[in-house]
Predict the structure.
Amino acid sequence: MLALKNIQKTYEGQLLLHGVSFTVAAGETVCLLGPSGSGKSTLLRIIAGLESAEQGGVFWDGANIAGVPVHQRRFGLMFQDYALFPHKSVRDNIAFGLEMQRMPPAETDRRVADALIQVNLIGFESRRVTDLSGGEQQRVALARALAPDPRLLMFDEPLGALDRTLREHLSTELREILRNSRVPAIYVTHDQEEAFTIADKVLLLHGGRIVQSGAPAEVYSHPASDWVAEFLGLGNLLTGKVGHRDTTPTVRTEAGIFHLNCGHIHHDGDHVRVLLRPAGASLSEEPAGESITGIVTDVLFHQSGFKATLDNGLYFYLPTAPKIGEQVTIQAGSVECLG
């Protein structure tokens, strides 16, 4: 299907994209996840044909499409503001692109009806888009993108203007629509929860490079670097020195000595960056095994319990709330080696 090979792009004299390569398979939804300025939207514009790369190529089924005009690529692009026509009805917004292609009225009506079914908006045909909620407008924009039967869909932060509750609801709904349509898609976002909900494959961009790729569960469970772990908010990042307790590998950190959960080869004395996840911790009566002692500086209610921050900067999710100022001992798990 789609393949990007060694894409390089300069912006204002600075290299924005550094040899980016990835593929999108049939029916697959790929999320480009990263902070602002990482090159996500520029990649979409290059794929759409709105910008050109200085190096590398965009291929569809093995053919370089560099010379194919935007309107002939049959790629649908959906932006955050939806770009709907406020004076037109739902039906006329969806039909607009088809009418510009001079599609016969009967075929236009059929495609509009099919698109309305796909996004669950049957009965909304005559409504003005200004009378719709933000979520309904988002579905109109998606129906308009689906109606021309695109061979690829591209989304640039389509839920970014909505509140979190609506984003969570619509991201689940959007994933179901994409799965049912079987249209391959590229989805740009800076929101990890959104990406993990929608994506079959996540590509993490940092500094114009793909620093990790994989299924959402794989990326979450095995971050490739401390930057990935920090960006995804996976937990406490520590520096430690490798050693052994009997035959068990350990890492000595400022917070304590922990079992080292690592698939890499290390030697005693090596310095490593490790991740100590905050979940699964518990309060202990006294130090034992892999425990951490500190004074509680902040407690916040969290859906899965209470987020307790200690004076050493580490935080953990606990089933009960300790008191601020209290000295506590927390039983933590093993640490994971990064990189």
